[in-house]
Amino acid sequence: MSRVTTEIKDHIAHVTLTRGDKMNAVDPDMAEAIVAAGTALIDNTDIRAVVLSGEGRGFCAGLDVASFAKFAAQDPVERVMPRTHGDSNLMQEVCMVWRKVPVPVIAAMQGVAYGAGLQLAMGACIRIAHPETKLAIMEAKWGLVPDMGGMVIWPHLLRSDVLRLLTYTAEPLTAAEGQGMGLVTRLSDTPLEDARVLAQVIAGKSPSGTRAAKRLIDVAESGADAATVLYEESREQAELIGKPHQMEIIAANMQGRAPNFG
């Protein structure tokens, strides 16, 4: 049974979790499918944006509780410590693979984004959520710590005291509350529709410029020193000025039309 589908249309990859009957809970097969879907997009030069969503009533309810028994039967060190995907293990790559995709990733959230689901959403550049979507760093409920990449990203989004509160308590909050904290970019009564519209807007910009912007932001957020960031600003800009995509943008603006990048 398919856990994830990918449809590429008009330079936008629509990646959908398709385990709606289980609130898209992550079992080992789902983890493998999510990572495979993201990995398949890394070298795709045709895409300009990704929309990441979950079918049914919830974006992702977290780890599939039915998988806990299987996990418990394995040696925990052997299960979580091997770096199977660069710096990550499989479960961490569920989040981190979307940071490796070279174009903007937009997550559309509804219903719930708990635990693994919230960390999956953290892999996106932008998160659009229905105001009543429930969010939670859920691992403390099970006597665990977040271990799917969230701790790489949350310190850039949340104040330390807020991150600690959410991590220590596992208490859910609404997306409306999460927006004020930094977990949610934008609220919408129709998050998937709005995510698709935003993806179309991004797809209409210079493909090379957008990819350069994502690389540059990644450098800026990496903790690099000022000299490195300033150098990367200049290097990325030098690769764009006067090139075909930039010249097409200029021509389109001057002629009052939409750009055509082929």
TrEMBL record:
NCBIfam families for this protein: PRK07509.1
Keywords assigned by UniProt, alphabetized: Fatty acid metabolism, Isomerase, Lipid metabolism
Name used for this protein in its record: Crotonase/enoyl-CoA hydratase family protein
InterPro entries to which the protein is assigned, alphabetical: ClpP/crotonase-like_dom_sf (IPR029045), Ech1-like (IPR045002), Enoyl-CoA_hydra/iso (IPR001753), Enoyl-CoA_hydra_C (IPR014748)
Protein species of origin: Lacimonas salitolerans
Functional pathway: Lipid metabolism; fatty acid beta-oxidation
Lineage, uppermost ranks: Bacteria, Pseudomonadati, Pseudomonadota, Alphaproteobacteria, Rhodobacterales
Family annotation (Pfam families): ECH_1
Annotated family: Belongs to the enoyl-CoA hydratase/isomerase family.
Domain of life: Bacteria
